[in-house]
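Listing S7. Sequence submitted for prediction.
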Amino acid sequence: MSQENIAEIRRRLASFEAAYNSEDLDGVLSAWAADFVDMPDGLATLRGAEAPARRQAGVSERFGDYESRLSVEAEEIAPLGEAAVLVRGRLTVTMRH
């Protein structure tokens, strides 16, 4: 994986963090592909049109009900074959009413 690819991934992670912290719902949702699979802890896995709809509802609820900050720390970025990338690190959300 080239340094340019790694830099692009880091840029996208930073854009996601900035969008979340400015409550830019469209910017947050743009981080997920249209065909992503939503696998949150404690809830059923969703695929297809239901996945982005649930994600949008959850993020909208957090923005409406909480003051929250998100922090992304990518410690490792590595290729997984031709079409996937591993990003290992931390995503921390701090929420207050």
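Caption to Listing S7: primary sequence and predicted structure tokens for the chain studied. The helical segments are 3-21, 25-29, 50-65. The first strand starts at residue 67 and ends at 79.
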